[in-house]
């Protein structure tokens, strides 16, 4: 059926992504501060974090649209964990652990009160660069990008600086700022302003207000979680997070009457 075809398509994409990493000769020595398990890591055409998060999103899409038995889930957890660990992306690894725990707690989260606390806590965590205190060296020098992005918010106004603004900044504090601020909320505020933030909040809120399945709600929360220190929600570039949100929202809303 359609859902089986979707799972097959995701698996094919996952396999092709890994094959392309091999062919591109991207098995490289890991950076000293990122050697978690392996001495060599996959960096992929989009970088270690990019590849790790792509794999994480595909993992989430499979996990939350399937009905695996406990035995199959254990195998799926372990095999996916080893693949994601090869990218040495700490963001992807932490998001993977968070997503897996949330899936096993999904019946607990069916209660509206606990789901509300869960979603608010996840949003507060992902918005840490907006309200937290940190130095430029924090989070592998992401602090420098966050502090600079925060200084721009006041001038971003209602509609922001535009989606191409950040790509024109070049090298900032040792980072090649080629796609974003490394935080989903700062990305939107700098590029699309307060109007863009309101639109994003409305889109995300729709998943929790409507009678979508519990799996889709937890999945969206997991994707928000991953946006704390990566530019996962650059919606205008249709990153894997955006594609998964669009496809799965259509699927789940056909399954669940509104």
Can you characterise this structure?
The chain has 258 residues and is mostly helical. Helices cover 64% and strands 4% of the residues. The model has no long low-confidence stretch (mean pLDDT 77).
Concise overview:
The protein is mostly helical and 258 residues long.
Offer a few descriptive terms:
10 helices, globular, two-stranded antiparallel sheet, 258 residues, mainly alpha
> Largest beta sheet, briefly?
2 strands, antiparallel
Distance between the termini: 23 Å
What radius of gyration results from the CA coordinates? Answer: 18 Å
Question: What is the count of helical runs?
Answer: 10
Main sheet: which strands, in order across? 1-2
> Spans with pLDDT under 50 lasting ≥5 residues?
none
Q: Estimate the mean pLDDT confidence.
A: 77
- Percent range of helical residues: 55-70%
What is this structure's SSE topology?
Blueprint: H1 2-23, E1 27-29, E2 40-42, H2 48-65, H3 70-85, H4 90-104, H5 112-126, H6 128-131, H7 138-156, E3 171-172, E4 175-176, H8 184-209, H9 214-226, H10 240-255
Antiparallel strand pairs: 1-2, 3-4
Helix pairs in contact: 1-2, 2-3, 2-4, 2-9, 2-10, 3-4, 4-9, 5-9, 7-8, 8-9
């Amino acid at each position: 059926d359609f859902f089986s075809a979707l799972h097959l398509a995701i698996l094919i994409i996952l396999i092709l992504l890994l094959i392309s990493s091999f062919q591109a000769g991207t098995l490289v020595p890991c950076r000293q501060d990122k050697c978690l398990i392996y001495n060599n890591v996959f960096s992929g055409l989009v970088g270690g974090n990019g590849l790790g998060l792509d794999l994480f999103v595909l993992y989430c899409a499979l996990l939350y649209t399937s009905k695996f038995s406990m035995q199959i889930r254990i195998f799926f957890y372990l095999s996916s964990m080893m693949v994601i660990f090869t990218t040495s992306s700490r963001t992807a690894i932490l998001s993977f652990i968070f997503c897996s725990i949330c899936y096993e707690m999904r019946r607990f989260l069916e209660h509206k009160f606990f789901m509300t606390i869960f979603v608010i806590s996840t949003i507060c965590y992902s918005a840490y660069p907006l309200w937290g205190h940190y130095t430029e060296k924090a989070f592998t020098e992401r602090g420098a990008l966050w502090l600079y992005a925060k200084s721009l918010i006041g001038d971003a106004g209602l509609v922001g600086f535009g989606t191409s603004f950040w790509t024109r900044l070049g090298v900032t504090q040792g980072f090649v700022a080629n796609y974003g601020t490394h935080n989903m909320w700062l990305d939107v505020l700098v590029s699309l302003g307060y109007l863009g933030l309101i639109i994003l909040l409305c889109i995300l809120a729709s998943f929790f207000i409507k009678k979508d399945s519990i799996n889709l709600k937890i999945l969206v929360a997991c994707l928000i979680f991953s946006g704390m220190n990566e530019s996962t929600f650059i919606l205008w570039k249709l990153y894997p997070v955006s594609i998964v949100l669009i496809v799965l929202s259509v699927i789940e809303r056909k399954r669940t009457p509104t």
